[in-house]
Amino acid sequence: MMQRLSTRLTFAGMAMCASLPTWASGAIEGAVKQRDLNWHAIIMFVLFVAFTLGITYWAARRTRSAKDFYAAGGGITGFQNGLAIAGDYMSAASFLGISALVMGSGYDGLIYSIGFLVGWPLITFLVAERLRNLGKYTFADVASYRLSQTPVRCFAAVGTLVTVLLYLIAQMVGAGKLIQLLFGMSYSSAVLIVGVLMVMYVTFGGMLATTWVQIIKAVLLLCGATFMAFMVLAASGFSFETMFATAVATHPKGISIMSPGGLVKNPIDAISLGVGLMFGTAGLPHILMRFFTVKDAKEARKSVFYATGFIGYFYILTFIIGFGAIMLVLGRPEYTETIMKDGVSVTQLIGGANMAAVHLANAVGGDFFLGFISAVAFATILAVVSGLTLSGASAVSHDLYANVFARGRADEAHEIRVSKMATIALGVLAILLGIAFEKQNVAFMVGLAFSIAASANFPVLFMSMFWKGLTTRGAVIGGSAGLICAVLMIVLGPTVWVKTLGNAAAIFPYDNPSIFSMPLAFFVTWLVSTLDKSESAQRERALFLPQFIRSMTGIGAEGASKH
Amino acid sequence: MDEALIQRIQNNPKFQELQHKKTSLSWLLSIIMLVIYYGLILMIAFSPKTLGTPLSAGSVTTIGIPLGLLVIVSAFVLTGIYVRRANTEFDQLNKELIEETRQ
Predict the structure, then answer these.
(1) Which of A62-71, A306-315, A385-394, A467-476 shows the lowest mean pLDDT across its residues?
(2) Interval B26-81: pLDDT, tens
(3) Which of A7, A105, A220, A267 has its CA 20 to 30 A from that of B51?
(4) To the nearest whole angstrom, how far is the Cα of B61 from the nearest Cα of chain A?
(5) Is the Cβ pair A553, B10 closer than 8 Å?
(6) Domain assignment of residue B73, yes or no
(7) Partner A contacted by B35 (CB < 8 A)
(8) pLDDT tens digits along A231-290
(9) pLDDT of A494-527, one tens digit each?
(10) Is the CB of B66 inside 8 Å of chain A's CB atoms?
């Protein structure tokens, strides 16, 4: 049995290493068995919902202007925003996925955590304060600052909506399966609950409610993970050496979990994954939007500093939790089941490898703590989808409606109404897509979202802030080239072409396109802009200086609203 | 911002200083972060054995573990260095610049 378990784990580890997407969605692959109702979890989740709906009611009374709705009036502090950013970023996928990856292959899990973290310093050094000084509600404000509004905003809205929808589908499907497993509810009722609650948070409470839901969830998740890591360390006498030695003695792969494994086989994919994670983070619209919720550039900087600290700490915890799962969960009969898969019986963790952290919660804290962690996992999904939906709705109402359709002449009340309608539409769409994709393997979608963010949103945003020569034509054509290239490479790559569509061999050999698609976007943007000799291009280049001065000094930047 | 103000800011030596200091610090720190991260990735890709060396004879812990943790800590420390300098020195300079150029 140990042998079979080991084969299964090796396979799972390899599948996870092959690409970001396989684990990042947090979705449990394949069919999931419904469990008995988990009352601890349900009661704690109901408490979370009641509390956050109370906050939404409070926030709704403070949300009047467009600035309140999109940016919480600009009155969030750097520390609060740091927690909220961390909340946006520490999804159920990273909590369950990375700890499962560490349990399966040890050291490789750490490599992924690092990849997820190192984008943040770059955001601090190059993006955060410039974004805050130049923009108002969306990153399109910055990208279109001195360029032609209609084409650039349309491009940015498409980039935003595509990223948000892909991310949203992966989260919805992951939520449905996870909740089915943890709470014992049916898949569609779980998807429905997530959809309805997120629409309520966003339409009534706007950015203020969304921010507080993020903050509460981040605190709960950090506390839960800290407790688990503490218990794991306590079980090994607070010695890392003992913890590693026990894990190595238990794990079927033995000492090899202490050094890099699966990633080594394919350096190009490893580097490409690193590029996608690093620069994708700087192009995720729902993350970029968070920088407009603080007062000024100073608070924007502080928020990334706190966020980096929280996220780094969290990833160190998941590493310890993964090793704890090797010590306390792996191979224990009470957490293991034998199921039939493709006609072969396999022994695995109950609910699949991604349940490592959940079983560990039971092992270190009993039923009550298991309920707590399950409720936190649900809350986490809820918070992440709320942030995504708000960002998608802003692209529709602020970029497409107010600035393209109404050419900047829409009144605020109308713009907010459009935003709320867009939120409801996105909510309905998310529920329908969640149900439609139930049986599909959606694991590649988060990876695709990161790749598109790195290859379409990031290059245009970056060039608009740093390169005088950028023109409208260059931004739209270059960004679109990156977007199309990333989508094509993923569709033709091993994850979709072979594993999802069932073809024999992949046309594009790598799982992660960013190392090709991002430089392509930069190159095309540069080339087209340089060749652009039109009159409007001359004007746009001349406007760089005032933009640069504003981005440096903050003169003319949006302030916080006062009430 | 009107033309005259832009001219005044652009010609003010404090703006030159601010721009120079901020730009060089952000790029310097970005490059350090990239070197640290891709250094680790290249080691994983081309010399995984090095990372798998035990810390001391007979220990299970490998060099890769503290190195990996060091990358996480360095991300936090580098961010801290930037934020500290920007929020004190650069913001002070910026304030003086705005006061000098306002009419």
Answers:
(1) A62-71
(2) 999 999 999 999 899 888 878 888 888 898 888 899 999 999 999 999 999 999 99
(3) A7
(4) 6
(5) no
(6) yes
(7) no
(8) 999 999 999 999 999 999 999 888 889 988 765 567 788 788 888 888 999 999 999 999
(9) 888 888 788 888 899 888 899 999 999 999 999 9
(10) no
- Residue A305 to residue B22, Cβ atoms within 8 A: no
Q: Determine, yes or no, domain membership for B5.
A: no
Residue B11 contacts A, CB cutoff 8 Å:
no
> Across chain A, what does the average pLDDT equal?
87
Percent of chain A with pLDDT over 90: 57
User: Is residue B9 in some structural domain?
Assistant: no
Domains and CATH numbers, chain A: 2-58+76-553 (1.20.1730.10)
**Are A552 and B19 in contact (CB < 8 Å)?**
yes
What does the block give as tokens for A82?
């740091």
Confidence band, pLDDT 50/70/90 cuts, at residue A443: low
Please give the angle made by the CA atoms of A119, A121 and A123, to the nearest 5 degrees. Answer: 70
Q: Name the DSSP letter for residue A338.
A: E
Partner A contacted by B78 (CB < 8 A):
yes
Q: Of B33, B38, B68, which is closest to A110 when you measure between CB atoms?
A: B68
**Band of pLDDT at residue A17, cut at 50, 70 and 90:** very low
Neighboring chain B residues of A467 at a CB cutoff of 8 Å: none
Task: Quote the CA–CA distance of A386 and A392 in Å, as a whole number.
Answer: 10
Tell me the residue range of the domain where B51 lies: 25-101
Tell me the C-alpha distance between B21 and A252, whole Å.
53
**Cα–Cα distance measured from residue B97 to residue B94, given in angstroms and rounded to the nearest whole number:** 5
Encode A377-402 in three state secondary structure: HHHHHHHHHHHHHHHHHHHHHHHHHH
B-contacting residues in A 269-298 (Cβ below 8 Å): 270-271, 274, 278, 298
Q: Cβ contacts of residue A149 below 8 Å, gap of 6+?
A: A403, A404, A407, A408
Q: Can you tell me whether residue A336 is helix, strand or coil?
A: strand
Q: Is A30 helix (H, G, I), strand (E, B) or coil?
A: coil
Residue B45 lies in a domain: yes
* Chain A residue whose CA is closest to B56: A241
